[in-house]
Every structure is written in C-alpha cells, then in structure tokens.
Amino acid sequence: MTRQADQRRVVAVVEDDSSMRTSLERLLNAHGFLTQGFSSAEAFLHRDTTSRIGCLVLDIHLEGMSGIELRQRLKDAGSRLPVIFITAVDDAALEQQGAKAGCIAYLHKPFPAALLIDAVNRALGPAPTASRPAVSIR
C-alpha cells in the first residue's frame, strides 16, 4: 500500500471512554485500517492536520462539545469527511438529529464489529490492491 493510500485509510476515533476508544482502534487496526484516537471533540479539532483522515468514528455523547456539534462545525467549515456516529443512548429524536447532521451510519453500542467495518469500508471506498505481475497464458 502506498503512503497516499495509507493516509486515505486512516480512521479517526473520537470517544471519551478510553477503553471503548482502545477497543475500537484495535478492531479497526485488525481489519487493516490505521487509526488515530481522540478523547474529545476539542482534541480532534486541535489535532495535527498534516495527517490525512479518511473517515471519522464519532461518539455522540462526549464531554464538552457533542459529536453532533463537532459534525456540524466540520460541515460548516466545508469538510466532507464521512462520519459514523456511535452512541449508547437509544433515542429516536437523537438518531434523527444525527441523520440530519449527515452520517454514513448510526450505530448503537454495543454493535457487531461487522457493522462498523462495513460502515468504514463504505466511507473509505474499496481498499487499494497491491499490483500483481501480469500472467502469460499460452
């Protein structure tokens, strides 16, 4: 995978529960994604912007700025970063608010790993494949 492709496959995880954040990062790493973890929306906003993030896994209920507020701030700034919302709260109004803010998926904790991986793959597009030598058939 090229360095540019690596950067496209970076997933930012914004989750204030450190054990949940670590679990999400390990899961994503095990499926071939690079991750950057952030404990708050504010930490994400103050990140080193030289790294290119391909998508954002974003908890809705964070200390300080909420995930929906962060998504709206990014959207207002012109960001087209795909977002996957995660939450432990089952609230239809909140889910509607999340959908209105724009997201690839809205997942309720605990969610099956396959749902998150599928959502991240949809957000990032297909993984680049290594170039294969041409095969000659005679």
Which ranges are low-confidence, i.e. pLDDT below 50, for 5 or more consecutive residues?
A: 1-5, 130-138
Oligomer: single chain
Q: What name does the CATH topology carry?
A: Rossmann fold
Strand order of the largest sheet: 2-1-3-4-5
Q: Give the C-level CATH assignment.
A: Alpha Beta
The level of helicity is 40-55%
User: What form results from the Cα inertia axes?
Assistant: globular
Describe it.
With 138 residues, the protein is α/β, with parallel strands linked by helices. It has one domain: 3-Layer(aba) Sandwich (Rossmann fold). Helix content is 41%, strand content 17%. The chain is built from six helices and five strands. It has helices at residues 3-8, 18-30, 41-45, 67-76, 92-101, 113-124; strands at 10-14, 34-38, 55-59, 83-87, 105-108. The protein has a five-stranded parallel β-sheet with strand order 2-1-3-4-5, sandwiched between helices. Helix 4 links the parallel strand 3 (55-59) and strand 4 (83-87). The chain is globular, with a radius of gyration of 16 Å. The two termini are 31 Å apart. Mean pLDDT is 87; it is low at 1-5 and 130-138.
Question: What's the short story on this structure?
Answer:
This protein is of the alpha/beta class and 138 residues long.
